[in-house]
User: Fold these one by one.
Assistant:
Number 1:
Amino acid sequence: MIALIGTRSALYVTSHLFSNHWALSAMNRLVPEDIEAYAQAHSMLESDLCRALREETQRRMAAPQMLVGPLEGAFLKMLTQLAQATSVLEIGMFTGYSALCFAEALPPEGTVLTCEVDEESAALARLYFARSPIGKKIDIRMGRAIDTMRNLKGPFDLIFIDADKINYVNYYRRALDLLSPHGLILIDNVLWDGAVLKQPAPDEKTAAIQELNRVVSGDPRVTAVLVTVRDGILVIRPQSRMPIV
Ligand SMILES: C[S@@+](CC[C@H](N)C(=O)[O-])C[C@H]1O[C@@H](n2cnc3c(N)ncnc32)[C@H](O)[C@@H]1O
């Protein structure tokens, strides 16, 4: 069952496919569409497999806008390579688009461990991962990500957080324990359609993202940049002994 609820100028899609906390806006573009298209046209190309997965996700899933898409996917690949990552942990796989981007950017021995709760999304991801040897780098862990993270050892070179917003601060705190000293944490949707500017927060997800942004920017253990790609990505690295001034 899908409920469509008009609010502001946005379309809100709520589906029983996602947890009670999971209601995602169709995402107003913060970056104008023609600028985004221009940036995409002048960035790393999306692979054929990613394109096919994106198109099938758009045909079959209730909230296809949840996948990061070609421009953010290219950005994730670039950061994976710059970090010289060999191990990636992803919180929130959906149909596997960003997991595939990471797997494509990793060296042959690289691994992606990705967490998901929704069986229908995971079934589509498995179909596409099986189509390429690159898919063998990806290990899907079903169940609540916070439980999966509790039982992981790490360290991971890159941790991408893109699941239920309510748990963002919990994911960030656990991610810091699991991160290698030279690693990167990336957190998606930290502008939340621009709603983070609103005071007081209009709902609990917006409040959770505002809290995350406050916690990260005030955390002396890390340095961070909030990058205005798509819906906002926090790029976080552990503070080195020689702080950048
Ligand atoms: C925004 S989507 C991820 C998109 C994905 N990174 C991509 O670019 O293709 C968020 C995903 O997190 C999953 N999710 C929500 N709550 C979760 C939880 N507690 N544990 C694990 N996954 C969860 C949802 O089912 C959904 O598929």
Note: Residues 18-19, 22, 66-68, 92-95, 97-98, 115-118, 121, 144-145, 162-164 surround S-adenosylmethionine (CB under 6 Å).
Number 2:
Amino acid sequence: MGEKRDQVLFKSRKSHRGQRYIEWRYAVMNQGSYRCCLCGSTAELTADHIKPVVNYPELAFDVKNGRILCEPCRLKDMLASWEEGKFERQR
Ligand SMILES: [Zn+2]
């Protein structure tokens, strides 16, 4: 049952925000002591994928591929990644 659901999740990349995503985010937050790993902020924290899920869907729920970023740092990093061409541009 679990495996089939995983396959569906990995096929539709945009729907990775399910229960597993919530658990992944929780695990990432726990391993990183609730601070932004770039600026040390403790406000507006989000769990970020080190390697973009767009390119590495198999790492979507890998805790080692997770890090804590605050929202401003996440946006900055995302823009930088776009400029480097790490992400596929999507509308
Ligand atoms: Zn930050």
Note: The radius of gyration is 14 Å.
Number 3:
Amino acid sequence: MPHNWTEEEIRRVGYHVVDLIAEHLTRLSDEPVFRPVPPELQEHFHSTPAPAAGESPDGILREFRDTIAPFPFGNGHPRFWGWVNSPPSVMGIFGDALAAAMNPSCAGGNHAAIYVERQVVGWFRDLLGLPREAKGLLVSGGSMATLTALAVARHVRCGVNVRADGLRGAEQPFSFYLSAESHGCVRKAIELLGFGSASIRTIPIDDDDRMNVAALDAALAGDRANHVTPIAVVASAGTTNTGAIDDLAAIAGTCRRHQVWLHVDAAYGGPAILADAYVDRLRALAEADSVALDPHKWLFVPVEAGLVFVRDAEAMRSAFSLVPPYLRTDGSLTGVGGPIWFSEFGFQQTRGFRALKVWMAMKEFGLAGYKAAIEANVALAAYLADCVRASSELELMAPPGLSVVCFRVAGRHNEDEGAIAAINRTLLDRLQLGGEAFLSSTELRGRFTLRACIVNYRSTRQDIDQMLSAVRRLARTLRADAHLVGRRAEEDLDEELPLDVVRVGEHPGAEPDEEAEEHHPDEDGHGRGDRRREVRPHRANRLVHEQAEARDHRALRAR
Ligand SMILES: Cc1ncc(COP(=O)(O)O)c(C=O)c1O
């Protein structure tokens, strides 16, 4: 293939790419949410050497269609609610393609991409109520935003010249304050910045999983009294586990009194500032020294797109800039240099044109469209929570926060925590591999739970109903299987079974009318009829499903 493509050839192949995108996006909902890559294909990826010669575009696209497109992560599907991953905005997808076509470096310069990023950053700055002087930067995601923000906090609060001397010159130890519900990226950032995880004070949480502000206050006072230097408090505006929002206003007041940096992780929950029900709780984002917010989560921008804001722009620049002062471009808007370069405010030098997909997605939805999508997701989470409350087979594991619902198949009679966790773990495995719906899991206060995080503008009540009916069906099958295995093991081995296996098997299957009795909070029956639409698991899923079943049987026998 010649490297100088003609316009005609670009159009022909390009239209084919558009066809593939259109097929992928419109057929997703008829496909399993997830299907694992079959072993022979894994082996193919593993063992195929780099192409010795160039291949034809048609062949390349055919290979994409046959071996890559059928095995997605799952997050474009209306019944994907794992982790915090959303479907992509269509204009965001096109934005990514157009950005790649322009292929600028957004380190800086006087080209359009720079002004698009400045505009996008300005939109979010205003949305959060941060002052005009605050500096924002697009980064890869929440982890990089957190690392960037805490690097500035380190620069400002350490009391030593950390750029020249590292932390060696410090006379006393440092400390950070997070709740047990903080995202793991905060700990990673603190470790990476050289403080060590020993510098982390884990502040207790209240019954709603929010940081206990009195305990934070006491920890800060205690450290000051013991000659430990507090660097930063990291509050959550929407925890990953349960969507809990810390009392940001109270924490901001505490930080001011103790003169400590406040970073707020709004990677997931920040966009909920658009929702009427959350605007008050998120208003104090404006008081933070730094904020992380991910457009690639609840704003449906294709990954990767994270945002970091730092209130003190000069501090941010001085933490990262490695341009000698006499070379700095201090706002030469008519020359090649353009505004002060983004690369002076973060770690990356060459930077992609992330802003275009954010800009296009923002224009596609508009603030009103985002508000509607976010409020619809919150309402769907409330609906799911109501269905769980109304079900005798399920239990809610935490009050729903934002769009997260933690629930699980309830234990029966004297089933202990281990047995309940085991049945829910196996069920989750089956659900994910079955391809009908996708949840993830977590632990809340040491208890295993299923977790749905609805950041999905494609999801409807019918999808929730379908997932719930799959969960109930799997639970009944698993209990029936466990009963059978228990019986067979009794016959085969003629010895006493471990207690939990016996207990699981005590109640074989479900009462036939159990599902019919299920009360749905949706009075008009909306969505119930759609159970007929259940997706039949793809052959690959069925295979994995059967393997999983056999494995479960073996595991139960072995206990
Ligand atoms: C609350 C929260 N903060 C930070 C992160 C890390 O963001 P990223 O995965 O974009 O690096 C996540 C990821 O899910 C998150 O949920």
Note: The pocket of pyridoxal-5'-phosphate is lined by residues 83-84, 141-143, 183, 185, 238, 240, 265, 267-268, 294, 306 (CB under 6 Å).
Number 4:
Amino acid sequence: MTCNRMNQQLRNLVDRRVLLERMRQGEDDRTTVSFYQYARIPNPAFFRDYLFIHWNELGVLGRTYVAHEGINAQISVPSIAFQAFQEHLNSISFLNGIRLNVAVDDGKSFFKLMVKVRAKIVADGLNDASFDVRDTGVHLDAEAFNSLTGNEGTILIDMRNHYESEVGHFKGAITPDVDTFREEIELVEDMLQGKEEKDIVMYCTGGIRCEKASAWLKHKGFPNVHQLEGGIIEYTRQVREKGLDNRFIGKNFVFDERRAERISEDVIANCHQCGSPCDDHTNCLNVACNLLFIQCARCADEYEGTCSSTCHNVVQLPEEEQKKLRRGVKDSSKIFNKARLRDTSRGDSVNGESPNETGVRSSEKESPGSPEA
Ligand SMILES: [Zn+2]
Ligand SMILES: [Zn+2]
């Protein structure tokens, strides 16, 4: 095989828009799954290529991170190839029999396959050598979670970022106002000072963030740390399967094209422009902005899908003019300012403010906050 052929097999060289269209029109029935595993991977680059070639053949789409410390995958698998996919996983020693988090609200989640080598599978900012990462908190299933969080003295903490908990969270949970997981860990550690003897329960989207965070807290002198196994995704599956009381309100934010899975009918967020109840995230249609924010249908209409008057003006310019404006502008993906969000009191408009300062920006290269789940 020539080097070029090889490269073509290992990369997606098709335009994003073409891929998106292909995904939306795709008739194939798919299952959206996520999984992670901490394991020692001696050669992540080699493993990455190995996964890409096999999964590409099976028609798998989605985003996967591989590191020396393990694998973190959020993907969709054609139903017809699901068994073959599972067999492939089982052929890999540290993934044999792994529990897959299956999305409740299925549909078109990813439009291309991306497998990347990273330093870590979750950007946690922790020095792993300084504590025992295997000494995690007690894992809780949905039933045990409901029971323990029902106790008066239990402290329940949402380990996700503010834009995730904004549209949905567990009743009674503390939802720290943070932009990154790194910040979250620091803040939670501070917040819990003096509460060493309390039962602490933490949760995230699919469970991976709590694996390290719980071990870190134990290391820091909190013995009674618990974590929701499989996160909100697995909790929801169990609640529906067993008919348990659902304590999660709103939507579960997910890092794919679906943006979120609706878990309960409650709408707990507000449109960032007019303040009316709304929990639909969208990306600003000004390509140079691409801000991820919450926008109601009326505002989407009024601002033609843009986040501000500034961006609204931009999209009305001819494409050539827009291109000129984009030139020289640094890619500011993932940048947002929570302070601005806090200052923007509900009901206030964010019109006219710099689009760089509100909400979350997600570039096509990556979802906000990833690699996390
Ligand atoms: Zn609105
Ligand atoms: Zn914008």
Note: The chain has three domains: 3-18+29-117, 138-243, 281-362.
